[in-house]
Amino acid sequence: MNLSKNLTLEEVTKSSTAEKLKIRNDNMTEEVLANLKALAEAIFQAARDKLGPIRISSGYRSPELNKAVGGSQTSQHSKGEALDLQGISVSNKELFMFIKDHLDFDQLIWEFGTNTNPEWVHVSYRRSGKNRKQVLISVKENGKTGYKNWPA
Ligand SMILES: [Zn+2]
Question: What is the pTM assigned to this prediction?
Answer without folding.
Answer: 0.95
